[in-house]
Amino acid sequence: MSPLTGLDGRTAVITGAASGIGRATARLFADAGAVVVVADLDAEGAEQTVAEIEKEGGTALAVVGDLSDSTVIARLVAVTDGRFGGTDILVNNAGVTDSKTPPARVGDEEWERVVRISLTAPFLLTRAMLPHMLRQQRGVVINIASEAGLRGGVGGIAYTAAKHGAVGMTIGVAEAGQIASVALFLASDAADNVNGAVIPVDGGRAAL
Fold first, then answer.
1. Dihedral pair phi/psi, residue 136, rounded to 5°
2. Is 163 a catalytic residue?
3. Residue 207 — very low, low, confident or very high, per pLDDT cuts 50/70/90?
4. 1 pLDDT band (50/70/90 cuts)?
5. 93/185 same-domain check
6. Which of 20, 57, 10 lies closest to 40 in space, CA to CA?
7. Which one-letter DSSP state was computed for residue 6?
C-alpha cells in the first residue's frame, strides 16, 4: 500500500518509466490510484512496467518512442487525451548522461543530444500538456533533475547544463501549493529521505 493516497481518477504521464526511478514512480502512483501512462524509448521495459502495474490491480498504458521527437510527443498527448481525457500529472523523468568529456572536447552532437533529451523534451511535454491542466484548473508537473542541477557535477558540462535548465524551467512554471498538503507529505513515510530541507510553500512567489 502506498504511504500516500489520493490519486484516484488522476492520469499520470511518467517518462523514462521503463526502469529505475521512472518504473518505481509509475508503480507507486498506480498504487495510489492513478492511471499511469508509461512513456519510454525501451518498448520491452515499458511493457514490463505496465504488466507489473496491472498485476497489482492498476491501470497502465505504454507509449513507446523518442521523446526528443515532437511527433512522438504529439502522439503521446493524443493517446492520453483519447484514452483518459487528458493529463493530470506529468513526471518528466527521462534523461541521459554525457561522456564526462572535458568542456573543450565536447562535440556538437553530444551537447545537442543531451540537452534535447534532458531539457528540451521536458519543456515540449510540459507545453503540450499545460493547456488541459489550465482548463481544469488543476495539474502537477514534476521534473526529476539531479544534484548536478544545483551545483557542478561529475556528469559533465552538457548534463550539468541540462539539469540546471530543468531546475530553472521548474521554477518558471511553478503552480500554487497548499501548506496542509505539503505538511501531510512531510508527515508521511513518503518523505523519509527529506531531512533538513527548506521547502517554500508560497504559491510560487519564490519563483518570481
1. -90, 0
2. yes
3. low
4. very low
5. no
6. 20
7. -
Rounded to 5°, angle at Cα 154 from 153 and 160: 45
Distance CA 163, CA 197 (A): 20
Q: In sequence order, what are the residues at sequence separation of 6 or more whose Cβ sits closer than 8 angstroms to the Cβ of residue 207?
A: 171, 172, 174
Q: What does 18-63 look like in DSSP terms, one character per residue?
A: TSHHHHHHHHHHHHTT-EEEEEES-HHHHHHHHHHHHHTT--EEEE
**170 and 90 housed in the same domain:** yes
What pLDDT is stored for residue 206 in this prediction? 57
Provide the angle, in degrees to the nearest 10, between the axes of the packed helices 20-31 and 43-55.
30
Separation CA 159–CA 157 (nearest Å): 6
Residue 83, in any domain of the structure: yes
- Do 111 and 207 fall within a single domain? no
Q: Which of 29, 84, 111, 159 is catalytic?
A: 159
Choose the catalytic residue: 27, 132, 163, 164. 163
Convert the pLDDT of each residue in 127-139 to its tens digit: 999 988 889 888 8
Structural domain boundaries, residue 170: 11-175
Cell of 108: 556538437
Select from 110, 111, 85 the least CA-distant residue to 165: 111
* pLDDT band at residue 44 under the 50/70/90 scheme: very high
